[in-house]
What does this fold into?
Amino acid sequence: MRNPPIKRPRKQSSSVKLEQIIHEMDTRGDPKAVAGMARFGIETSKAFGVSIPQLRDLAGKIGKNHHLAEQLWGTGIHEARILAGMIDDPAWVTEDQMEKWVADFDSWDIVDGSCGNLFDKTELAVRKALEWSKRKEEYVKRAGFVLMAELAVHDRKAADKTFLDFLPLIVREASDERNFVKKAVNWALRQIGKRNAALNAAAIETCSKIRDSDSTSAKWVASDALRELTSAPVKRKLSGTKQQGPRR
It folds into this structure.
């Protein structure tokens, strides 16, 4: 049996109703924006065309609400699912929920929003990054590497070992030619390498390992990451950082 998070807050309540939120998103929607989303490879068959700033504004008014987040996700509406990740409470998220949502992923921006707004803040984030990076489904695999990237940015207490353990997975999957996967692999590598000086050196070494691959994708992942990781701005930023020990 999958275990829920150790600590949970008190039951949440809200006067905001699902129908009200859907109506507001429909009102704010812009058909021209939907067309623009499609040009960026976003699934728009159930989209209103509501911008991310508008969704963040709506999320701020709603506040954290796990039950409402699950209701929003269940609608299948594009913006409702992005909003769900914004308002859900990480302390309430279970492994079953994470697996249900990841199975529903059908667009790269929902992957990125769910991972960056919610999943990276759960106790299961590292384990799911490891697990999902091994999966075959394009958006599930992307989610694994997006989690690595988001953890590198947001989890300031994580030890370097967490990210060093991600690097062999980046080497393994760098040859995946699928656009949404290779870009996430590249993103994870760059964010890990920008975390501190020690991880920068490890990431640059990883670039060297995959640069000589016969894969066009791997060559791009390595060359693009190396360009940023060896740049003067990144070097200046990392000049005062230190390696972190294990988290107690």
In short: The first helix runs from residue 18 to 28.
